[in-house]
Design goal:
The complex is a heterodimer. By secondary structure, chain A is an alpha+beta fold. Helix content of chain A is about 70%, strand content about 5%. Chain A has helices spanning about 1-10, 20-45, 45-80, 95-110, 120-130, 135-140, 160-170, 185-225, 225-235, 240-285, 295-320, and strands at about 85-90, 110-120, 150-155, 175-180. In chain A, strands 2-3-1-4 form a four-stranded antiparallel beta sheet. In chain A, helix 8 (about 185-225) crosses helix 11 and helix 10 (about 240-285) packs antiparallel against helix 11. Chain B has seven helices and ten strands. By secondary structure, chain B is an alpha/beta fold. Chain B is globular. Helix content of chain B is about 35%, strand content about 25%. In chain B, the strands form two sheets. Chain B has a six-stranded mixed beta sheet with strand order 6-7-8-3-9-10, sandwiched between helices. A four-stranded antiparallel beta sheet of chain B has the order 2-1-4-5, with helices on one face. Classes of the chains: A alpha+beta, B alpha/beta.
């Protein structure tokens, strides 16, 4: 009764703004203060903090790097599927005029979007340029290469079945020697990326758990270090949420730092790898490139890292903070 | 303000810390709690602070029965009870000002009010000039007064002290007791656990005496 009267008196002592508004304001002020304070504590022990950030950074960078690689690979196969082309090699006896006639015939088919003719001279020139067998080719008497038609199926026929019927149709044409669709390796690549995707997610899950445990342990140590403060805070009427708050912020800051380290590691390795990858892709005539993190991706990485840090802190706080009770201060 | 109704506290089957304790303290009353060590003084204080719950009977503080208080409500009760310890329980990683400000921060008092109220509390215990110092730089008596400033900074209706003069010489002890007397004059209920019989006799106040968990003197209703 008297207690209630007292608290009313305290509220009544507030000035202008409404008590609720003032309460909310001081709540936010306190959050900001605790956030700043826990960040400053991390700065005060830079080496220890940096070590935790690096551990987190490595643990986060690894799965993210694999995920990026995976997306790049999926980009490759998607690109190839959409431009699945059928190569029809004409018989050696076919002349350039025959080849033009066949090109026109194939083009007339409604299932065909485009037919490109590569005549044997052009093919030889390309082969010469790309194979490096320049000298060896000089010894050949004639051009061993046939004329070639590159058939791009119509949008609707770019399914396995559609391509199949088109292949049969081309094979039936007079003067066509051999028809080739090289989609087998693409299917294998797809199967492999699917498998890889699962492995990466499993790895990501394991490493996320590791991050949570690392942060949990670090926060446990900082709880031990601030034991007296926790006792006093509980003694003067600090709620559980109040006592937990600095540690949850500590976890989140550890997470944010880890996320930043992970991002830096990713950018560095991307920069380091991009040259060789481009050369390799060039050799395969692929437009494959390693994609870095987009702005959204980087933001998501940081947010996930902060959440993991927060979660780790929560685990430690749940286990260790509630066990600290002011009862042990006063002697028996 | 504080009322014990047939309170018994048993820790385990063979150790009974308090046995059917009955007493009540009125608003603004100041009383001493005395007895040999292990008589149950600390247990009694802990029951008021809800650090322990009674095995039987009722503890009532400010009209609220504490037995059935849910755990999450405990902090709000503690905000109405100031506590002073023999070993101060000050934090040495912050200034005197920040130590005293803790109860206000916990309550979410706006920053501009915190400064005003902390300085008022420090002024009351005569340490206004030392607000920026670390408690380690202060003498034992000064540290104890910082502890008192922290206990009263949010103007609690109840003030508890556990051996507040245990480490102090008689003159300083008398000073501290005088301070407690001033708080009771403005309506704070003060309960001081102490075994300093000479000091208690000097103060001429109501004295609750515990002997092996039983209240042998000073029980019942206050003035």
């Amino acid at each position: 009764m008297a207690v209630a009267a007292d608290s009313r008196k305290q509220k009544g002592a507030n000035q202008s703004s409404s008590p609720l508004q003032q309460q909310a304001e001081s709540y936010l002020v306190h959050h900001r203060k605790v956030a700043r304070d826990s960040a400053e504590r991390l700065w005060r022990t830079p080496v220890a903090s940096m070590m935790t950030w690096t551990v987190m950074g490595v643990a986060l960078a690894l799965p993210v790097a694999l995920l990026l690689l995976l997306t790049s690979l999926q980009g490759v196969s998607a690109g190839w599927e959409s431009s699945a082309r059928i190569t029809a090699y004409l018989s050696e006896s076919a002349t350039l005029d025959d080849a033009r006639a066949l090109q026109a015939e194939a083009q007339a088919d409604s299932r065909v979007l485009e037919v490109e003719l590569i005549d044997k001279d052009q093919a030889l020139a390309e082969f010469r340029a790309s194979s490096g067998l320049d000298d060896a080719l000089d010894y050949l008497e004639g051009n061993p290469l046939p004329h070639t038609l590159l058939v791009t199926p119509d949008e609707a026929s770019r399914t396995a079945g559609g391509v199949e019927t088109l292949v049969t149709r081309l094979q039936g044409m007079n003067g066509v020697d051999r028809v080739q669709v090289d989609l087998g390796w693409l299917q294998r690549l797809n199967a492999m990326t699917d498998l890889l995707a699962r492995a990466v997610w499993a790895l990501a899950l394991l490493l996320a758990a590791a991050v949570v445990l690392v942060i949990g342990n670090t926060v446990r140590l900082s709880i031990e270090n601030r034991r007296d403060e926790i006792l006093v805070a509980k003694l003067v009427g600090g709620t559980d949420a109040f006592v937990r708050r600095p540690f949850l912020y500590t976890g989140a800051w550890f997470g944010l730092g880890g996320g930043v380290v992970a991002w830096v590691l990713l950018q560095l390795s991307l920069w380091w790898l991009s040259g060789p990858v481009e050369r390799l892709a060039g050799l395969y005539r692929s437009d494959f490139s390693l994609n870095g993190l987009t702005f959204d991706g980087a933001l998501a990485l940081l947010i996930v890292a902060m959440l993991l840090g927060w979660l780790g802190a929560w685990v430690a706080v749940k286990r260790h903070l509630d066990a600290i009770e002011p009862g042990e201060i006063a002697g028996g | 303000m504080i009322e014990f109704r047939q309170v018994t506290k048993r820790y385990d089957s063979d150790h009974t810390a308090l046995r059917q304790v009955n007493f009540s303290l009125a608003r603004g009353e100041m009383a001493f709690l005395t007895g040999h060590s292990g008589a149950g003084k600390s247990t009694l204080l802990k029951l008021i602070m809800v650090m322990e719950r009674p095995s039987a009977g009722e503890v009532v503080v400010g009209g609220q029965v504490l037995n059935t208080l849910p755990r999450r409500q405990i902090p709000y009760i503690r905000r109405h009870i100031g506590v002073v310890f023999q070993n101060h329980q000050l934090l040495f990683d912050r200034t005197v000002f920040d130590n005293v400000a803790m109860p206000l921060e916990v309550m979410g008092v706006p920053a501009r009010d915190i400064g005003r109220r902390v300085r008022a509390a420090l002024d009351k215990v005569g340490l206004l000039s030392k607000e920026k110092m670390n408690p380690l730089q202060l003498s034992g008596g000064e540290q104890q007064r910082v502890g008192i400033a922290r206990a009263v900074v949010n103007k609690p209706p109840v003030l508890l002290a556990d051996e507040p003069t245990g480490n102090l010489d008689p003159e300083l002890s008398a000073d501290i007791m005088h301070l407690f007397g001033q708080f009771s004059q403005v309506g704070v209920t003060v309960l001081i656990a102490s075994h300093d019989i000479a000091l208690i006799n000097d103060m001429q106040r109501r004295t609750l005496t515990l002997d092996h968990g039983e209240l042998t003197a000073g029980g019942g209703r206050g003035r």
